[in-house]
Amino acid sequence: MAETDIETPVAGRAEPPAGGHGGLPRSRRVRRVTGGDRVVVGLMMGVPTLLVVALVVFPAIATVVLSFARWNGIGGLGTIQWIGTENYTNVFTNYPPFAPAMEHNLLWLAILFFLATPFGMFLAVLLDKEIKGSRFYQTAVYLPVVLSLALVGFIWQLFYSRDQGLINGLLGTTVDWYGDSKVNIWAVLVASSWRHVGYIMLLYLAGLKGIDPSLREAAAVDGASQTRTFFQIVFPVLRPINIIVLVITVIEALRAFDLVWVVNKGRNGLELISALVTQNVVGEASRIGFGSALATIMLVISLVFVSTYVVTVMREEER
Predict the structure, then answer these.
(1) How far apart are CA 229 and CA 235, in angstroms?
(2) Whole-angstrom Cα distance, residue 132 to residue 256?
């Protein structure tokens, strides 16, 4: 019987991996970035950047620059007269509509922040309990958010019309809710709050869905009531949502424009800073520099709150 050589493994000797060369693993094939890939990535980054610069950054910078000039928008750039801070001086001292516009913007902010926002949060808490028909209620409350403020103004005209409005029909009155300077600001605030409540409800509802249920269960075991659980446990956890809501509410109060412009172009008791900007820039006077000064004031106020929000978010991420 012929002898066959049998190879036995030697202790301590590692066998090379199957298919390997010299005991080394196969190197993975790395696909190199081609010129077409660079073009696609460049377009994906470049086009949005150009749009932001052209539609946001450049107009903002131009607005600040033109706020120090006198220009009616007719003629070339050589017709611009640089007058320093004269526009700002006139805004604060020689422009009567500015004071009521600031008051109305502050009133707008107060109503949205102290009434509409808590009511939206209250609705979010109720709908978070998964009550019967909650999907229908969510849709009904959120529906005004998808509508523009201009359309909201037309819808509420059905309620506020002096001759055919629902409110006057029920009360038997003939109040011109949009035309009377003593009540029209309150009328448009109700319409604006109707839309704002749905947005706030959605934000808080999303935050409530993300809270760990064990927190509420632990509070219930300790005997805490639902009200105490919300204000001492749930509400502090919603701090990021609270900051977002604050910033959004401030911005909404400052940029409120569509509703009052549809009603009476921001006059007769509905003066707002945004409406004053439009009146001066595209109105009959066409005072580009003066309108830019008003817009710059809005920009500065907005930046204060937006910067606060960004700093807070960055600190949260660092933690």
Answers:
(1) 9
(2) 35
| The pLDDT value given to residue 258 | 84
The tens digit of pLDDT for each residue in 262-312 reads 888 888 889 999 999 988 888 666 789 999 999 999 989 888 877 877 787
CA neighbor of 263 nearest in space, from 275, 254, 280, 278: 275
Distances (CA, A) of 25 to 21, 223, 303: 7, 61, 56
| Residue 21, strand partner residues | 24
Please give the CATH topology (third level) of the domain spanning 97-284: MetI-like fold (1.10.3720)
- Three-state SS annotation for the chain: CCCCCCCCCCCCCCCCCCCCECCECCCCCCCCCCHHHHHHHHHHHHHHHHHHHHHHHHHHHHHHHHCCEECCCCCCHHHCEECCCHHHHHHHHCCCCHHHHHHHHHHHHHHHHHHHHHHHHHHHHHHCCCCCCHHHHHHHHHHHHHCCHHHHHHHHHHHHCCCCCHHHHHHCCCCCCCCCCCCHHHHHHHHHHHHHHHHHHHHHHHHHHCCCHHHHHHHHHCCCCHHHHHHHHHHHHCHHHHHHHHHHHHHHHHCCCHHHHHHHCCCCCCCCHHHHHHHHHHCCCCCHHHHHHHHHHHHHHHHHHHHHHHHHHHHHHHC
Distance CA 111, CA 31 (A): 58
Where do the structural domains in the chain lie, given as residue ranges? 97-284
Please give the model's pTM, rounded to 2 decimal places: 0.79
Specify whether the CB–CB gap between 155 and 147 falls below 8 A. Answer: yes
Structure tokens that stand for 160 in this block = 């506020």
Beta bridge partners of 81: 70
CA distance 279 to 264: 12
